[in-house]
Design goal:
This protein is mostly beta strands and about 150 residues long. The protein has no helices and 9 strands. Bound molecules: zinc ion (2 copies). One zinc ion binds next to loops.
Length: about 150
């Protein structure tokens, strides 16, 4: 459901700041992160639709005492919009009950330089998001030749 005014003009690609490798397909920036939509049970619909991205000023989770779990300010895309990023070498980073809960730090790395650039959340009870680390990732304008959506 796109409405005029929801997105900034132009299409971006999120790239590794260290080596410039593209990490996502071309995506268009939303003005703000959409509200998370709970499904039946503990599950959530994907926060951001394919083809879009948004900044989440908050960390993905907070502990019962309000301490952050994960970085604030992440660039959030639909998990399918990530290009093929290898898993982090530490298998605990990819832990979860049936998917990846993202509670143990970034779980996928840059294919160019190995920087731990993003956290995929796709467990049955978590939000469905790929969260790119703002300290390690740069936004650039998409150009012809960037991987197309789909
Ligand atoms: Zn699960
Ligand atoms: Zn890199």
């Amino acid at each position: 459901m796109r409405r005029a005014g929801d997105t900034l003009t132009g299409v971006d690609v999120l790239v590794c700041s260290a080596c410039g490798t593209a990490l996502t397909r071309p995506v268009q920036r939303l003005l703000q992160l959409p509200a998370r939509q709970p499904l039946a049970g503990p599950a959530y619909a994907a926060t951001v639709a394919p083809g879009q991205w948004a900044v989440d000023p908050e960390p993905a989770f907070r502990t019962g005492r309000g301490e952050p779990v994960g970085s604030g300010g992440c660039f959030v895309v639909h998990p399918d919009e990530l290009l093929a990023l290898p898993p982090h070498a530490d298998p605990r980073r990819s832990s979860g009950c049936c998917g990846r809960d993202g509670l143990d730090g970034p779980n996928v790395v840059c294919p160019g330089c190995g920087a731990a650039v993003a956290t995929v959340l796709d467990d049955c009870w978590t939000y469905r998001e790929a969260r790119l680390e703002p300290q390690l990732v740069t936004v650039r304008t998409a150009v012809a030749g960037d991987a197309d959506s789909g």
